[in-house]
Design goal:
Order of helices and strands: HHHHHHHEEHHH
Structural class: mainly alpha
Radius of gyration: 17 Å
Number of domains: 1
Helix content: over 70%
Oligomer: single chain
């Protein structure tokens, strides 16, 4: 299903933007990115293919958007690698092979969809908000499970084991905020957003992370939703907030 969604996004992008002159360069950038991501074990083989589609769409629209994606990848890779032994003890470590296609699409498909469509008002800002949420949510879960400290369920504030769906901590929330700010700052430096828009991007990213935690506590923890769908809904909430503000 994830690869089918990736193929659909690629078809949409080529249908609307296939005449762009920068596509050969975008393809070259994507190839290097995909290979490096796989060698670094940031993604599995299927995750590499799905990520390549998103990277191609972003690079094809504006190479600066790809740079933001690269920052997200580096942030999430570093957060995932940090404290791996403790995460293994808690049984929350990502597989050695890297994130799968379904995980990649859950976090990045909305950003790809927004930029695969024809230009519309605030399109880039919505995509950047989606990327900020992806970085924020990953940093929250990966960093929060490493540092020892109190973790509470976001819905009732009862203490839970680090790594529990819907659990939040001071360290995880701080990491999430810094990750969203890093994406927003990169967007501002590259000229993709004004200062006020960058603040909106960061705020939407953190908001989406919190929504992800609420949904995780209410539904994923009880087995009603899987993690990929929760991540997708969290990203959608960030984009929704950005759309209301933009």
């Amino acid at each position: 299903m994830a690869m089918g969604a990736a193929a659909l996004l690629l078809g949409l992008f080529l249908g609307f933007h296939g005449a762009r002159r920068n596509l050969p360069m975008a393809l070259a950038i994507t190839a290097v990115f995909a290979i490096v991501g796989r060698i670094a074990r940031g993604v599995s083989a299927s995750g590499m293919l799905a990520g390549a589609v998103i990277a191609f769409i972003l690079a094809g629209r504006d190479v600066r958007a790809f740079v933001v994606l690269l920052i997200v990848f580096l942030l999430t890779l570093a957060a995932t690698r940090l404290g791996r032994s403790r995460k293994q003890q808690l049984h929350v470590a990502e597989p050695e092979s890297g994130r799968s296609a379904s995980q990649v699409m859950a976090n990045l498909s909305i950003a790809g969809l927004v930029l695969a469509l024809p230009d519309f008002h605030a399109g880039y800002l919505l995509a950047l908000a989606a990327l900020a949420e992806a970085a924020s949510d990953t940093a929250s879960s990966e960093i929060g499970s490493v540092f020892r400290g109190k973790t509470v369920l976001i819905t009732n504030w009862k203490e839970v084991t680090p790594g529990t769906d819907g659990g939040i901590s001071v360290s995880g929330t701080l990491a999430a905020t810094l990750a969203a700010l890093a994406v927003a700052a990169t967007s501002r430096i590259l000229g993709l957003a004004s200062t006020s828009q960058a603040a909106m991007i960061a705020g939407a990213g953190v908001f989406g992370m919190l929504v992800d935690s609420v949904i995780g506590a209410a539904f994923e923890r009880r087995g009603y939703l899987n993690n990929d769908l929760v991540n997708l809904l969290g990203t959608a909430s960030a984009v929704g907030l950005a759309a209301l503000i933009a």
